[in-house]
Design brief:
Keywords: Membrane, Transmembrane, Transmembrane helix
Shape: elongated
Protein name: Holin
Length: 73
């Protein structure tokens, strides 16, 4: 639970949340169009979740390599 909270407070997460809030506010006040908001929001969210998925995949590969090394010994 503490690790999840620490990850949530990572700089990347904070930037993603702040950017989302700012663009949502600008869209509601007419500062940007809904189309502009959707474009920026899609890019940011895709990047955020893409890097999270890559981290999980690297961790799984690393764990698999460790298990194979332990079995070979």
């Amino acid at each position: 639970m503490k690790k999840r909270l620490a990850n949530l407070l990572a700089v990347k997460s904070i930037v993603t949340i702040v950017l989302t809030c700012v663009f949502a506010y600008l869209t509601c006040t007419g500062g940007v169009t809904a189309e502009q908001f959707l474009t920026v929001f899609t890019v940011v969210i895709a990047f955020y979740f893409g890097t999270q998925a890559e981290k999980r995949q690297q961790a799984a590969v690393s764990e698999s390599d460790t298990q194979q090394t332990d079995q070979a010994a």
